[in-house]
Design a protein that fits this description.
The chain is of the alpha+beta class. Helices cover 48% and strands 14% of the residues. It folds into two domains: 11-42 and 139-219, Calcium-transporting ATPase, cytoplasmic transduction domain A (Distorted Sandwich); 55-116 and 235-334, Calcium-transporting ATPase, transmembrane domain (Up-down Bundle). Strand 1 (122-127) and strand 2 (130-135) form a beta hairpin. The longest helix has 35 residues, at 84-118. The radius of gyration is 30 Å and the shape is elongated.
């Protein structure tokens, strides 16, 4: 559902009166009835969340590992050959690695969801000429939002009044120095976001002064929403650790097949029974598999996750810990802005 009133309009180039006319509102704000009608038309002012990850998905993801699959096959073969002790031992190791990985990743997902629920911003608006504090998700295009120092910008706004208003836009533009805002129209329609001094964008914050802004875009139609849409299309690749472990698993699988082939071939040349040689070859192939490797890797990554948690960092996927830990150089501009919202 679109959250703009018409096709894209260069709001920063329009005078305030024309902007109010385009959005069918006035300086006293919308009426409650009109706001309710627009709410039904445009929907809530919130970003469309990504599909929540179910516990079953997190659990099944633990089995998307070549080594785990090989160990499961080894468990089945050991049980088939009557080696119940070996089969039980491998099963315990696999379950330990899977359960530990599941617990760590599911706890991270739950923590992230809890943080999202804690962020329930409100906005002060004019409705029927009266100031009202409402949930930010109830904002609609055409609302007049009142801003003051400390206010979070709840939607994309065309400023209609500014009294020494300054807005910190680091989250959107990367610039940590607050920007002075004013309501006068800007002639250049192609100005970048950071130069649109009469606009305030969702996700930024007022740091000084006060003002009023007219909501021109909400939800996924805001500049922040457009970035969120791009992020939702990004596919997460395998980490170097996962790639290398898959290579190890593939190499071991090929080695195991080679062992079976060689043992069976040599046995047949010596006149040994086919079934006996085949079983012996499978037993050797199972012995090739390092049963403890997945558990050792999972424990090591879990320890890394716990250390990061103590530093207030959440890791969604265990293998990402190794990727982060093996990074030696990060080439980036505005690192202070990204980490502390200040110049360093």
């Amino acid at each position: 559902m679109n959250s703009t009133v018409t096709d894209p309009i260069v709001w920063h180039s329009l005078p305030v009166d024309i902007t109010l006319e385009r959005l069918g509102t006035k300086h006293a704000g919308l009426t409650e009835a009109e706001a309710a009608r627009r709410q039904a038309t445009y929907g809530p002012n919130e970003l469309i969340p990504t599909q929540p990850v179910s516990p079953w998905t997190v659990l099944l993801d633990q089995f998307k590992n070549v080594l785990i699959i090989i160990l499961l096959l080894a468990t089945g073969l050991s049980a088939f050959l009557g080696h119940s002790v070996e089969a039980l031992a491998i099963t315990v190791i696999v379950l330990f690695a899977v359960v530990l990985g599941f617990v760590q990743e599911y706890r991270a997902e739950r923590a992230i969801q809890a943080l999202r629920k804690m962020a329930a911003p409100t906005a002060t608006v004019l409705r029927d000429g009266q100031e009202r504090e409402i949930a930010a998700r109830e904002l609609v295009p055409g609302d007049i939002v009142l801003l003051k120092a400390g206010s979070r910008i709840p939607a994309d706004l065309r400023l209609v009044e500014s009294i020494n208003l300054q807005v910190e836009e680091a989250a959107l533009t990367g610039e940590s120095v607050p920007v002075n805002k004013q309501p006068a129209p800007l002639e250049n329609p192609g100005l970048p976001l950071g130069d649109r001094r009469n606009m305030a964008y969702a996700g930024t914050a007022a740091t000084y002064g006060r003002g009023r802004g007219l909501v021109v875009a909400t939800a996924m139609e805001t500049e922040f929403g457009k970035i969120a849409q791009l992020l939702q299309t990004v596919k997460t690749p395998k980490t170097p650790l996962q790639v290398n472990l898959d290579k190890v698993g593939s190499t071991l699988a090929k080695a195991a097949l080679l062992v079976v082939g060689v043992i069976v071939g040599l046995g047949l040349l010596r006149g040994q029974p086919l079934i006996e040689m085949f079983i012996f070859g499978i037993a050797l192939a199972v012995a090739v598999v390092p049963e403890a490797l997945p558990a050792v890797v999972t424990i090591s990554l879990a320890i890394g996750v716990q250390r990061l948690v103590r530093r207030n960092a959440l890791i969604r996927h265990l293998p990402a810990v190794e990727t982060l830990g093996s990074t030696s150089v990060i080439c980036s501009d505005k690192t202070g802005t990204r980490t502390k919202d200040e110049m360093t």
